[in-house]
UniProtKB/TrEMBL annotation:
<keyword id="KW-0479">Metal-binding</keyword>
<keyword id="KW-0808">Transferase</keyword>
<dbReference type="InterPro" id="IPR001214">
    <property type="entry name" value="SET_dom"/>
</dbReference>
<feature type="domain" description="Post-SET">
    <location>
        <begin position="234"/>
        <end position="246"/>
    </location>
</feature>
<keyword id="KW-0489">Methyltransferase</keyword>
<dbReference type="GO" id="GO:0032259">
    <property type="term" value="P:methylation"/>
</dbReference>
<feature type="domain" description="SET">
    <location>
        <begin position="114"/>
        <end position="227"/>
    </location>
</feature>
<dbReference type="GO" id="GO:0005694">
    <property type="term" value="C:chromosome"/>
</dbReference>
<keyword id="KW-0158">Chromosome</keyword>
<keyword id="KW-0862">Zinc</keyword>
<keyword id="KW-0949">S-adenosyl-L-methionine</keyword>
<dbReference type="InterPro" id="IPR046341">
    <property type="entry name" value="SET_dom_sf"/>
</dbReference>
<dbReference type="InterPro" id="IPR003616">
    <property type="entry name" value="Post-SET_dom"/>
</dbReference>
<dbReference type="InterPro" id="IPR050973">
    <property type="entry name" value="H3K9_Histone-Lys_N-MTase"/>
</dbReference>
<dbReference type="GO" id="GO:0008168">
    <property type="term" value="F:methyltransferase activity"/>
</dbReference>
<protein>
    <submittedName>
        <fullName>Histone-lysine N-methyltransferase</fullName>
    </submittedName>
</protein>
<dbReference type="Pfam" id="PF00856">
    <property type="entry name" value="SET"/>
</dbReference>
Length: 249
């Protein structure tokens, strides 16, 4: 049975992630249960990946333009854009005056940055995520957390898998058994979030960070694009409801 207002993170997040139905205890929602999984705050690195390259960081006094090696983003042949963020472990500039340090610091860097809740959308989309507070444009929202491993095209269950390339290495982040609130974010052909590969800290470990594409009002459902390859592999109909929906057959 659905437990109204249960914190799905079990206290792991500083901001509780509540579970509610779309209409508060609707009969439809109470017949559903949240798929079981282990809640983790950030991506876990599979030991089989071995050592990652050192993140050289930068020596800028104050970052903010394209001359800073950290202050960069680009396709570079990757499946997602990537960004390097300054960090105290690698960059002397990483302070409150640096515009490229991201959110938080240390163990709290790039943690959940909005008040989110999981709710039952409908029988087609099942569970989704909405924000309880307004989110501005180009704002970091949360990480897509899961288990980072080498890409395995033979993965049996890929509903919660995001595949990405970084420096000619193929990875996947699998949130099937372990993940955070982002695993419940639905697809939209007109999404309000974008996925970016974020690099920070002493090692070049790729993490999938979600940023707002536009201002998002309180109560609005969050959405990302799953990409063409996901839909081709699934062969499913899309029920995002967008006027420009590309996957409703």
């Amino acid at each position: 049975m659905l437990c109204h207002n249960k914190d799905i993170s079990n206290g792991a997040e500083a901001k509780a992630v509540r579970v509610v139905s779309a209409n508060d205890f609707s009969e439809e929602a109470t017949m559903q249960s949240v798929p079981p999984f282990i809640y983790i705050k950030t991506t876990q690195i599979d030991p089989s990946l071995g050592e990652f390259e050192n993140n050289e960081g930068c020596n800028c006094e104050q970052c903010g333009d394209s001359t800073c090696p950290c202050f960069q983003s680009g396709a570079d042949g990757n499946s997602f854009n990537y960004m390097k963020f300054c960090d105290p472990s690698t960059c002397p500039c990483s302070s409150k005056h640096c515009v490229n340090h991201g959110t938080g610091s240390g163990e709290n860097k790039f943690r959940l940055n909005a008040v989110l809740e999981v709710f039952f959308v409908n029988t087609q989309k099942q569970w989704g995520v909405r924000t309880k507070n307004r989110i501005g444009k180009n704002v970091y929202v949360c990480e897509y957390a899961g288990n980072l491993t080498n890409d395995n095209n033979d993965a049996q269950e890929d509903s919660y898998i995001f595949r990405l390339d970084y420096k000619k290495r193929a990875f996947m982040i699998n949130a099937g058994s372990s993940g955070n609130v982002a695993r419940f974010i639905n697809h939209s052909c007109n999404p309000n979030l974008a996925a970016v590969v974020g690099i920070y800290g002493p090692r070049e470990i790729p993490r999938l960070l979600l940023f707002s594409l536009r201002a998002i009002v309180a109560g609005e459902e969050l959405s990302i694009s799953y990409g063409d390859e996901w839909w081709k592999a699934k062969g499913l109909d899309c029920f995002c409801g967008a006027a420009n929906c590309r996957y409703l057959r």
